[in-house]
C-alpha cells in the first residue's frame, strides 16, 4: 500500500500503530474538516514516521494533539516529505519549522495555519529550503 486516505474516519494512535507494516507508504491523509480530532497524538505520528521513511505527503489537519515532537520525528525520519498539512494543530511551534528546514529538502507545500508558528520561523524555513517553490498556506 502506498496511499491511505482516512480523513473524517474516527481513528486513534492505535490505528497508526497498525500501519507500522506499511513500509512503502508514501501518502497519508488523517485530516478532519468538521471537528478537532483528539485521538491522534504525537506518539502515533512518531510511530508512523519511524515505520514509513518514504512518506512524501502527510495531512494531519485539525489533529490538535500533535506537537513539535511528532513533526520533528517526521522531519528526521521522512526526509523525502514534499507536502505537509498541519493546519489547526495548535501545539505546533517554530521548533517544527526548524526541524523541517534542516531535514526535508524536498518540501514544497506546508500548511501551518492556526498554529503557534511565527513569521521568524517561516522566514527561516524559506531561507534554508532548497526547493524552487515553497507555498506556506
From TrEMBL:
<dbReference type="GO" id="GO:0031146">
    <property type="term" value="P:SCF-dependent proteasomal ubiquitin-dependent protein catabolic process"/>
</dbReference>
<protein>
    <recommendedName>
        <fullName>Protein AMN1 homolog</fullName>
    </recommendedName>
</protein>
<comment type="similarity">
    <text>Belongs to the AMN1 family.</text>
</comment>
<dbReference type="GO" id="GO:0019005">
    <property type="term" value="C:SCF ubiquitin ligase complex"/>
</dbReference>
<dbReference type="InterPro" id="IPR001611">
    <property type="entry name" value="Leu-rich_rpt"/>
</dbReference>
<dbReference type="Pfam" id="PF13516">
    <property type="entry name" value="LRR_6"/>
</dbReference>
<dbReference type="InterPro" id="IPR006553">
    <property type="entry name" value="Leu-rich_rpt_Cys-con_subtyp"/>
</dbReference>
<dbReference type="InterPro" id="IPR032675">
    <property type="entry name" value="LRR_dom_sf"/>
</dbReference>
